[in-house]
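Ligand-bound model needed. flavin-adenine dinucleotide.
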Amino acid sequence: MSLFDKFIGATIPLVPKPIVRRIAAPYIAGETVNEQVATIKDINAQGFMAATAILGEFVTQRSESEEAVQQYEEVLAAIAEQDLDSNIHIKLTHLGLQLDKEFCCENVQRLLEVAGKYDNFVRIDMEDSPTTDDTFDIFFRLNEKFDNVGCVVQACLRRTLSDVRRLTETQANVRLCKGIYIEPREIAYLDREEVRTSYVALLEELLTGGCYVGIATHDEWLVSEAFRIVDRLGLDAWRYEFQMLHGVGAELRRVIIGKGHRLRVAVPFGPMWYAYSVRRLRKNPRIARYVLQAMFRW
Ligand SMILES: Cc1cc2nc3c(=O)[nH]c(=O)nc-3n(C[C@H](O)[C@H](O)[C@H](O)COP(=O)(O)OP(=O)(O)OC[C@H]3O[C@@H](n4cnc5c(N)ncnc54)[C@H](O)[C@@H]3O)c2cc1C
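Prediction:
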């Protein structure tokens, strides 16, 4: 992390709430289910699929996780009622992973059952490295019972190639991303080019191994590499999708769907936006840097 990024990270908690709101606004659909439904409608009208998440992570009370499950059930019902093209994605630390792994697994199972009733899909996000083993453990257990669950792998982690080989054995539904958490060099590639190289290798491995892949990136170079790979493998557009975050890369999105690929926009919402944004910006000030660059066109 550069000194400038460290400075940004340290000063984030001092930034007044309205300014954090301004930084977070382009990425977040709002606080309520109604606001989120309106945003998804708009995303769908532009020709993109959506994936929605309720903001929250690292909860300390079981009741917070129970509340999250209930809110996700409401979201799934609203998606079905409004006939929206959106699935959901969840964080296991929001559903109680750090309180009790079995409680968390039951919460995810409950959501998979509800999503199944609506013919919908749930993806389990990947969080920081202390949670990786438990996240895969829960995913693999549920993937045996349900066909509407997916997971995420992070190209920055050195372990990911072996995780991907396990995932291809069951032809899992996998989102591939670079990884947003700052991890130590012993377990992670820190160099941008190394992460890109890892991403390309993992994408090939996942696609040739028969996985459905969510290609999550705003990196134009990686998007071009992905075009090249799916073209060379002669893959049908139903075997993969591109994924981007709400509020990022509008032009790149148009390029992607203009070439006939499918694209999903991830759109988080919820009242916890402030705590979540501050924690996220502190953990990875590179995001704050992107926003400042976009605002002032550095
Ligand atoms: C749909 C989706 C789901 C994700 N899920 C996970 C997950 O489960 N676990 C996890 O660890 N990470 C997740 N990520 C985050 C991901 O790991 C990266 O941190 C993030 O996507 C930035 O990497 P990049 O590939 O876009 O490349 P970068 O090189 O970081 O970014 C390329 C360009 O995109 C723009 N950009 C990228 N991110 C932002 C941003 N937040 N705000 C403004 N501009 C930006 C910048 O202009 C930048 O130059 C997800 C990302 C996406 C798109």
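Residues 146 and 180 are 28 Å apart (CA to CA).
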